[in-house]
């Protein structure tokens, strides 16, 4: 006998065959056909879930449609005027905002300060 192994093991009913645990039919079936135990339940859950959620989503949209149809039209805002660049130009001229504008430079950091190493 070696240090890692023990002597012979007795199997069921005193036989000299090595003892193995008996596998259930479900375990043997899952080893032969793993799709039946993993893939099929998964696909059933996904497809079945879509059929379960379908009526709830349909009810949600029906309630929303009913609410929109019964909503009073007084709550809606009137349509805004279309934007016209020429109109805005004339408005700025009449307010006096057009002549006061002048370009200004943005303050920049000093040249000796590193710009790209700032966030390291």
Q: Could you please describe the fold and organization of this structure?
A:
This protein has 120 residues and is mostly helical. Helix content is 47%, strand content 0%. The chain has three helices and no strands. The protein has helices at 25-32, 34-70, 85-95. Helix 1 packs across helix 2. The longest helix is centred in the middle third of the chain and has 37 residues, at 34-70. The two termini are 65 Å apart. The mean pLDDT is 77.
Give the helix/strand layout.
Layout: H1 25-32, H2 34-70, H3 85-95
Helix pairs in contact: 1-2
Which term fits the overall shape? Answer: elongated
Total DSSP helices: 3
- Give the helix level as a range of percent: 40-55%
| First-to-last CA distance | 65 Å
Helix-and-strand structural type: mainly alpha
Comma- or semicolon-separated keywords:
mainly alpha
Task: Give a short overview.
This protein has helices at residues 25-32, 34-70, 85-95. The chain is mainly alpha-helical.
